[in-house]
Design brief:
The protein is α/β, with parallel strands linked by helices and about 300 residues long. The chain has two domains: about 1-125 and about 195-300, Malonyl-Coenzyme A Acyl Carrier Protein, domain 2, CATH 3.40.366.10; about 130-185, Alpha-Beta Plaits. About 45% of the residues lie in helices and about 15% in strands. It is built from 14 helices and ten strands. The chain has helices at about 20-25, 25-40, 45-50, 50-55, 60-80, 95-100, 105-120, 140-145, 170-180, 205-210, 235-245, 250-260, 275-280, 295-300; strands at about 1-5, 85-90, 130-135, 150-155, 160-165, 185, 220-225, 230, 265-270, 285-290. The chain has a six-stranded mixed sheet, with helices on both faces. Strand 9, helix 13 and strand 10 form a beta-alpha-beta unit. The longest helix has 21 residues, at about 60-80.
Length: about 300
């Protein structure tokens, strides 16, 4: 049985994440210390105590989510979770966690890189936003918003799509989506139009940060957001990661590709269980588990 390791993205952050793992397992606490030392900031305290608005800042949320995911993964492996040729997938920011899990990036380098990525995204044009569309598939959403200036940003699950673009176009786009049959359109609390052409100005500086970051050989295959294809060579990821910031996250296609590659079991590492829930909708026949605290770790070790 092959397993897909999943790593969540921005939006999963919540005050208290990783607290129980770091208190019970020295390896988790050491993981927070490792990333904190790399950034010169106390990530463990930020995750444990917040406050939530500070944790929600893009430049803080990205390294905080990354270190929480890697702490959960390390503890799970130390506790005996098998690592039998897993496929690694991360949603947006989570792709950096996936690359740490797969051996291409050190935690310290990834923390510095996502901190910079978060700073660039946080400083992007604030006239854009994002919204979740419930009740329509990506193709229907794309047709509905074709003339509005918005784009599909995340194809998260059947009937759950995120759109991104200029805030000034939202009223027209929401009306078009509801006319097309959307059950709900929910604005998201983000600082800009992520995963849209509005992020292209971020790309040059992000490219420089990625180019300054050493990549090692991949131990495990990583399925990329941009093309939903499995990649076995770390040298392919600098270009993919740059493109990812302004391109759609093809999560449905990525999960289906993982299943096609033999992944019948899914484990999500880090804060929350959003990706576990999406996996149940995309690949209902897969078994799922998550690791975010000691109780869920014990459950994940039993679910095989």
């Amino acid at each position: 049985m092959r397993t897909a390791w999943l790593f969540p993205g921005q939006g999963s952050q919540i005050v208290g994440m990783g607290k129980a793992l770091a208190e019970r397992f020295p390896l988790a606490a050491q993981t927070y210390d490792e990333a904190s030392d790399a950034l010169g900031m106390d990530l463990r305290a930020l995750c444990r105590e917040g406050p939530q608005p500070e944790l929600d800042r893009t430049a803080n949320a990205q390294p905080a989510i990354l270190v929480t995911s890697i702490a959960a993964l390390r503890v799970a492996l130390e506790a005996g979770l098998p690592a039998d040729d897993p496929l690694c997938l991360g949603h947006s920011l989570g792709e950096f966690s996936a690359l740490v899990a797969a051996g291409a990036l050190t935690l310290a380098d990834a923390a510095r890189l996502v901190r910079r990525r978060g700073e660039l995204m946080q400083a992007a044009d604030p006239s854009g936003g994002m919204a979740a569309v419930i009740g329509l598939d990506a193709d229907a959403v794309e047709r509905a918003i074709a003339d509005t200036g918005l784009v599909v940003a995340n194809d998260n699950a059947p009937g759950q799509v995120v759109v991104s673009g200029p805030l000034a176009a939202f009223d027209v786009a929401i009306a078009a989506l509801k006319a097309a049959g959307a059950k709900r359109v929910l604005p998201l609390r983000v600082s800009a139009a992520f995963h849209s052409p509005a992020m292209r100005p971020v790309a040059p500086e992000l490219r420089r940060a990625i180019a300054a970051t050493p990549f090692s050989a991949l131990r495990y295959t990583v399925i990329a957001n941009v093309d939903a294809e499995p990649h076995e060579h770390a040298s392919e990821f600098p270009e993919l990661l740059e493109k990812q910031v302004w391109s759609p996250v093809r999560w449905v296609a990525s999960m289906r590709r993982a299943h096609g590659e033999g992944a019948t079991h899914v484990v999500e590492f880090g804060a929350g269980t959003v990706l576990t829930g999406l996996a149940k909708r995309i690949v209902p026949e897969a078994t799922t588990a998550s690791v975010g605290d000691p109780a869920s770790l014990e459950e994940a070790l039993r679910v095989r």
